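Protein modeling request. Please complete all fields; requests missing the sequence field cannot be processed.
Requester role: graduate student
Desired output: 3D structure, token encoding
Chains: 1
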Amino acid sequence: MDQPEPESHEQPTLDRSARRAEAEARWATVRYRWKIAWLVLIPLLIGCAVLAFNFEHDVLWVILIGSVLLFVALILFHFFHLKRLQRAAEMLDAADLLDFDFTEVVSAKDFKEAHGSCSLLEEGHSHKFHNVLVGQVGETTVCLADWSYTVGGGKSARHYAQTLVVLPGNPGWPDFRLTPENWLHRLGDWFGAADIDFDDSPQFSKMYLLKGPDEAAIRAVFAADVRSRLEEKANWHIEGHEAGLVAFRKNHQVAPDQLAEFIAEVLGLAALMAAPPPSPGS
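Delivered output (282 residues):
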């Protein structure tokens, strides 16, 4: 993970009353626009349908079909836009409960400059960071964000959206990257691809692909209690370095009322990774 710049380039965070007023204003605007769309499109659809059935004119049928498609497109746009606004409002409430600062949109460039970057955050393209929360848990600075990106393009494009946590690093951490292991990775093992496995943790070794340049140091970080914790839930993606740690479960957005639990879960993992390994006699 690259060393983050000490100066944050995020958009200025508004005070809570201003943010609340802004969110309520957006909700009111969306509701107003939706009412206007209903008032215009429904009479248009009814009129086109009546004319098309009565006069059986090809042009009228084209207008009717076009109006229906437009109506469906507006419904879908409204649904996804409303869903995004609703999550932003709920994340704002969660930020208030956690006493974290909240910024609704941060550019990918500004986010990575402020909180550091790593290879996990460079996957795909069209990176977007929404609902960014930053605050203190004890003496630890925690950043949490909704991060989305796209892999591929056209009809084969795949969109991924997840909630990630960024934590400060640990001076003793080596560079490491943990991702779920699949059959392609297992096939690569036969050809000598790098993967750190543990004989005493076959389940962990089957679930995850663990890589990094300093195998001995990585094995020390991923002690038995760390591996056991990671076995409890699949799909962890974690990248660590002495400058910071990024953790998320791919394509999993955390519910706003579960953010505190998710932060505690990642902090717990980081604490286990930072703990010195037990001595052989203990």
